[in-house]
Design brief:
The protein is an alpha+beta fold and 335 residues long. It contains nine helices and seven strands; from the N terminus they run H-H-H-H-H-H-E-H-E-E-H-E-E-H-E-E. It folds into two domains: 150 residues, no CATH class; 168 residues, Heat Shock Protein 90 (2-Layer Sandwich), CATH 3.30.565. The strands form two sheets. Strands 2-4-5-7-6 form a five-stranded mixed sheet, with helices on one face. A hairpin with a 2-residue loop joins strand 4 and strand 5. Helix 1 packs antiparallel against helix 4 and helix 4 runs antiparallel to helix 9.
Length: 335
């Protein structure tokens, strides 16, 4: 909890004590109090109340409720502080009215009256400020958690494998001599991919339609590099409008296919990207030949971590003998 009083806190105190003084002046006027009582009682009560409030907010609450959570000491300290301040205020009021302590018959009763007086003086403004401080603290916590979440997402999004550019440059180098026309198309697709990566580098989620367009370009790079080793099909069984997934999710899943499956040269690794209501499902046939870990991107583990930050739904993985399925939830704006 922020223990410093800000501008709005002082405004609240000014309104509360200003109203209290005005109402008190009416009471004093009806009772016929002397001018000296106006000039002494109200400033004294206000000053003592502000001092008590500052001690509560800056010392007592942090020491006994925030740091140590010692409720017994909090109660005893609060009771003592209120009793002292209230009794002092009563003493000042007694002398300003021309009286003295010698006329006090019951000291305990007088001290008890001081406690009740302090509660009346301090209770409302202190309660308002504590509630306000608690609310501000919760808002600060939410802001910090949100910022931390954004930082984690940016960190995860930034973890792109350096082999991505290296592998594609090697493929492009081979194409320039063997197939210049396809090399031009390869450059165009690669530039579209990099433009997309740059444009979406800070985005937590992206429209599914744009991710599908990105996937089509990415699949072209894979097929150009590996030939007929991999086959890809995209099926849309539902509208992809106004639907979102984590930025780069399909890229990570396609990388996973290439990383963990290598064709034996006779049978292609078949991969289907299926879009259903609420889920994007990627299914690939499995190979007995495992490729070297030459991932192009963030990876499946990274994608899982991002989903924990973005959605209540989590990735589902079905690892079977002949095929591998990954279900990733489609995110709506309401999430």
């Amino acid at each position: 909890m922020n223990t410093k009083l800000n501008k709005s806190d002082w405004i609240i105190l000014a309104i509360v004590f200003g109203t209290t003084i005005i109402l008190g002046c009416f009471d004093y006027y009806r009772e016929g109090n002397k001018l000296i009582e106006y000039l002494v009682d109200f400033p004294t009560s206000t000053l003592l109340s502000i001092i008590v409030i500052l001690i509560f907010i800056q010392k007592i609450v942090p020491a006994f409720l925030v740091d140590k959570k010692n409720y017994v000491l909090f109660f005893i300290t609060s009771l003592l502080l209120l009793t002292i301040s209230g009794t002092l205020d009563n003493i000042v009021g007694r002398y300003s009215a021309g009286g003295s302590l010698s006329t006090v018959k019951n000291v305990l009763s007088y001290i008890n009256d001081g406690l009740y007086n302090a509660v009346d003086m301090v209770g409302l403004p202190l309660g308002i400020l504590l509630i306000k401080k608690f609310y501000e603290g919760q808002q600060e916590l939410i802001t910090i958690q949100k910022q931390q979440k954004e930082n984690e997402l940016k960190l995860l999004r930034s973890q792109i494998d350096p082999h991505f550019l290296f592998n594609n440059l090697n493929t492009l180098d081979a194409l320039i001599d063997s197939n210049p026309t396809k090399a031009k198309e390869y450059i165009n697709r690669l530039s579209l991919i990099y433009r997309y990566l740059i444009q979406t580098k800070d985005a937590e989620v992206m429209e599914l339609s744009k991710e599908i367009n990105f996937a089509e370009n990415y699949i072209f790079l894979i097929k150009t590099r590996f030939g007929n080793d991999y086959e890809f099909t995209i099926e849309e069984n539902t509208s992809i409008k106004d639907k979102f997934i984590p930025t780069g999710a399909i890229q990570a899943l396609l990388e996973n296919v290439v990383k963990h499956n290598k064709s034996d040269g006779k049978i292609s690794i078949k991969t289907t990207i299926l879009i259903n209501d609420g889920w994007l499902i990627i299914t690939n046939s499995k190979s007995d030949v495992v490729s070297k870990p030459a991932s192009f991107g963030t990876g499946l583990a990274n994608l899982k971590a991002r989903y924990k930050l973005l959605s209540n739904e989590q990735i589902q993985i079905h690892n079977m003998n002949k095929k591998f399925e990954i279900f990733i939830p489609i995110i709506t704006l309401s999430e």
